[in-house]
Write a structure and sequence with these properties.
The structure is a homodimer of 431-residue chains. By secondary structure, chain A is an alpha/beta fold. Chain A has 3 domains: 152 residues, Rossmann fold (3-Layer(aba) Sandwich), CATH 3.40.50.720; 167 residues, Dihydrodipicolinate Reductase, domain 2, CATH 3.30.360; 84 residues, ACT domain (Alpha-Beta Plaits). Chain A is built from 14 helices and 17 strands. In chain A, strand 5, helix 4 and strand 6 form a beta-alpha-beta unit. The radius of gyration of chain A is 24 Å and the shape is elongated. Chains A and B meet through helix 1, helix 6, strand 10, strand 11 and helix 12 of A and helix 1, helix 6, strand 10, strand 11 and helix 12 of B. Chains A, B: It holds the Pfam family NAD_binding_3.
């Protein structure tokens, strides 16, 4: 049908190589189904002489990325270098040269999204980044297109495969964090430096991207407070199981519109949480991810699939490349709406049910004293579970929804009580 | 930005009314986010004088549907009459007049899809029907666009809310089918005539639509063999629970490519099945739906949400209307690929693990006799559970995957054995 659409690739690491292989493998099938003839025309890498996958022709490689982003014979640029520098500069150059760009670079999009969207719009071309959100899971396109007429009120879910793999094994096999992390690293499920995953930073980047598009407001990764999974204790997994929960690392974004209908505030947070065992998120195991999108009219939607991995990411990138090629041939593009920066609601003002593990000295009236403190701070107790005998007991409280501010007030006062030996882990409960 | 895009509606039943209200409610927000000014211009109904929702202006109503599908002042037609006649004729007229059409009519699309796709292509306009698949759940757009470069191998899931509601309650509360159906009808979760739902016909229509788009082959509703949930017995729910399963009505489509890479065969089926309790489909409760899409590169994806209901359907229709309006303004449209009719693999050749409930006369050697029969037909037994004492026992067999043909051969021979009193329910096990 149309002219051949020539794809230039920046970077050929594990994801880049998987994409190049998938593209070559699917050229005929894509043309067959969509009528669009694609070609893989050039690949810029640091070392063009390095041996590469047999499926990719050696003459495609170049050492100069500007041979891709400024080249006359490249129609679409796929950026898979990762990181902010030099990816940002290269993408801006391509967009300014009127070339659509597809990227999987969540760090960059979460840090500099609005700048890139504006450059794409100036260039009159597409800037697509489905793989930067939840890798293989189509979620940005449904949010931007299928739900374009919707009022999205919440985006929440499991968006990091490494931590979900670790938590699934800690939960299922009663193992400690360090043991599972070491095993995950050996199997390639966790990076040698797992910091971005286990601290929640990676999830925060993805949440920034998802919430920006869902709420049409601009949320940056730095806006997202995060708690990681590094200091989770085995005892909390046991207690969670006993109460019918599993522990998951969640990324949660809520929109709180102003009473006058204005944009209001956005609550964004990454944290480990208790999730009821029969909640759909509880069955998301291993390296799988799942994101709930709550909307006014459609209600609750969930998107589930592989949130990491070279080939799943490549699948998502190929979908974006086909969409960009289709738009190129029709002389059109889809603008990413750049929302104004969101007003972030302080985490202290966000309300959850809480799980609170404490050690108390057993004595008559202690429980009533402790629950009295909660009550004075407006925190209602839904469940109390006391374990232990003699003089010391572990008491777990589960609260009704309360703000973190109210809870912290109660906990500060509890710490002053002589009968309260220690306040251990506090975890949010996600419903 | 562009000109106002004038929407004409056919039908104002529960879904039509919900759509008209949602559209009017969202006009400003849609223009704000997408730059597209929409208007609700006319609504064709059988009785224009009938009192309607306060949110819809009385002067919009007409008794003549051709006042919509042929009118100069209508840019997009939304068909929500349902059924084949006169919807088919009206849609064809609109498409031939160069008006894009959005519909939620699964019966029509599953019966006459290729004819409508061809008419849309001749008219150079969009024909969208996201709400005809799984109502609120965006799945056709992700399949058609995000997964355009993918090889989809399976589409499977829960696509009927009424039966899932009934099965969830039968499973959870140990109630009989008739009791739950009556309650569901009272609550409006089941139609006064529930035939299309409980026989699996509705699910078969949706599976025809999903598999046609996923496999790029044409599957009609009549191609889909279906078993309903009418004759499910309480004892099977109890036994399922005992073995760690729940019972769900599933729609399953598999692609079996030919060895030479040709289209090969498609296996399509609707049936009640045992699903392991911690499988993500097991947590899909009440009127929710969920569809797994298995692909070569992305792996396993799942889409979850409300598969029925006026407002969820309206959300999905509005998404399609916005996409069609966007294409109209850009002078483009997206062709539905019309695949050749699929070769349907006979159900006898599809392989599953089976659950088989039998009554046998207890005697030495009976179990070995029965398992011997299974073995001779190539059906391997994974689990045997015998309950009862004295002379008669209920024995449940769980097999390894075997074709229905092999299983039926074994069951036919078992029926001839004197010690086998009866063969009760046989259910597939979905993994």
């Amino acid at each position: 049908m149309g002219n051949v659409v020539r794809v230039g690739l920046l970077g050929c690491g594990t994801v880049g190589e998987a994409f190049a292989e998938l593209l070559v493998e699917r050229l005929a099938a894509v043309e067959d189904v969509t009528g669009i003839p694609l070609a893989l025309t050039r690949i810029a890498v640091r070392d063009p002489g390095k041996p590469r996958s047999a499926g990719i022709a050696a003459e495609l490689f170049t050492g100069d990325p500007y041979d891709v982003v400024k080249a006359e014979d490249i129609d679409i640029v796929v950026e898979l270098i990762g990181g902010v520098t030099p990816a940002r500069e290269l993408i801006l150059t391509a967009l300014e040269a009127g070339k659509p760009v597809v990227t999987a670079n969540k760090e960059l999009v979460a840090a500099a999204g609005p700048e890139l969207y504006a450059a794409a719009d100036r260039g009159g071309v597409d800037f697509f980044f489905e793989a930067a959100a939840v890798a293989a899971v189509p979620i940005l396109r449904p949010i931007r297109e299928s739900l374009a007429g919707e009022e999205i009120t919440r985006v929440a879910g499991i968006v990091n495969g490494t931590t979900n793999y670790i938590l699934t094994r800690m939960m299922g096999e009663n193992l400690a964090f360090d043991e599972v992390l070491a095993a995950a690293q050996e199997l390639g499920y966790a990076e040698p430096d797992p910091t971005a995953d286990v601290t929640g930073a990676d999830a925060a980047s993805k949440l920034a991207i998802l919430s920006s598009l869902a709420f049409n407001q601009s949320v940056a990764a730095d806006d997202v407070p995060r708690e990681g999974i590094v200091d989770l204790d085995r005892v909390d997994f046991e207690l969670a199981a006993q109460f019918g929960y599993v522990i998951k690392l969640l990324a949660v974004a809520d929109r709180f519109p102003a009473e006058d209908g204005g944009p209001g505030q956005v609550g964004v947070q990454v944290f480990p949480a208790l999730v009821e065992r029969d909640h759909p998120l509880a069955t998301v195991r291993g390296s799988f991810n799942a994101v709930f999108v709550n909307t006014d009219a459609a209600g609750e939607l969930m998107f589930y699939g592989r949130g990491a991995g070279p080939r799943p990411s490549a699948s998502s990138i190929l979908g974006d490349v086909i969409a960009a090629a289709d738009h190129l041939q029709r002389g059109t593009h889809r603008k990413v709406p750049v929302g104004a920066p969101a007003a972030i609601r302080p985490t202290e003002d966000l309300a959850y049910s809480f799980y609170i593990r404490t050690e108390v000295v057993e004595a008559p009236g202690v429980l009533s004293e402790v629950t009295g403190v909660f009550g004075r701070h407006g925190v209602s107790i839904q469940q109390v579970d006391q374990d232990g005998s003699e003089s010391q007991a572990r008491v777990v409280f589960v609260t009704f929804p309360a703000t973190e501010r109210a809870l912290n007030g109660a906990l500060d006062e509890l710490r002053l009580l002589g009968h309260v030996r220690s306040i251990g882990r506090v975890l949010r409960i996600y419903k």
